[in-house]
Amino acid sequence: MKIAISGKGGAGKTLLAGLLSRSFAEDGYRVIAIDADPDANLAVSLGFPADFRPVPLSNLKQLIEERTSTGTDKSGSYFKLNPHVSDIPDTYSAEHDGIRLLIMGQVKRGGSGCYCPENSLLAALVAHLILARDEVVIMDMAAGIEHLNRGTARKVDYLVIVAEPSRASIETARRIKTLAGEIGLGRIMAVGNKIRSQSEKDFLVSSLPDFTFLGFIPYDQAIVNAEVTNSSLYQASPSINLAIKDIYRKITSPTDPKTT
Fold first, then answer.
1. Strand partners, 213
2. Which of 24, 177, 246, 255 has the most crowded Cβ, counting Cβ within 10 A?
3. What is the CATH number of the domain that holds 56?
4. Please, which residues have CB within 8 angstroms of residue 64's CB and are 6 or more apart in sequence?
5. Which residue segment(s) compose the domain that 225 sits in?
6. Where are the alpha helices (H) located in 100-235, listed in sequence order?
7. Number of structural domains, the chain?
8. CA 129 – CA 134 distance, rounded (Å)
9. What is the pLDDT of residues 133-161, one digit of tens each?
10. In this predicted model, what pLDDT tens digit does every residue of 55-85 receive, in sequence order?
11. Quick one: how far is CA 202 from the chain centroid?
12. pTM of structure
């Protein structure tokens, strides 16, 4: 199963990606978690020790040069569009509690130097993970779908958009869904997060009437406290764990999830 998770920054997509990865691993699945968000906080959500986290791939300049054949072309004008990446998941990841983690890292943008070879490598890696690997792949994305293209989008089982009860988060969710539809991504679901009351849940549902909700995660100050003290998010909130387990059961159900 391949799952991409997106949403506005701070909406809680990294928390969902981490705890959902845990749920799959606990049931015996082999899991690859991909941190494709430039903020790169998935290692914390997964409980990876600070000294046992993989190096962001975008920092591996020699690897990028070798695989995209830009080592001898300092201008970066010519590079491989389909570099060899099949060994990267096993070689450049770290594994903890049955979950293998890859961190994409920040990719340079226009005006800050050549960034095309880096994009080429990461795009090829995402395609390989989604199309060729048989593990469960869970991708924590930025507030968009830039790591997916038409070829890989069709093989993603779910795009899960995390939304909190705020206008900004709702607008981001709508924008992501529009972009996903444009590249042919089919099953687009939503998860409501930081829910404090029934009225906030109703607000999300009424504001996103064309979304199917997999579930709703309650707000719990214990998660904030755990982040401040660098404690385990997995053990911080039983109520959030229950909500994630319910979402997990719906995702792994033999029938399509129904609206909550």
1. 190
2. 24
3. 3.40.50.300
4. 57, 58, 70, 117, 118, 121
5. 2-251
6. 116-131, 150-153, 167-182, 198-207, 221-229
7. 1
8. 8
9. 899 999 999 887 877 888 788 889 999 99
10. 999 889 889 888 887 765 555 555 566 788 9
11. 26
12. 0.88
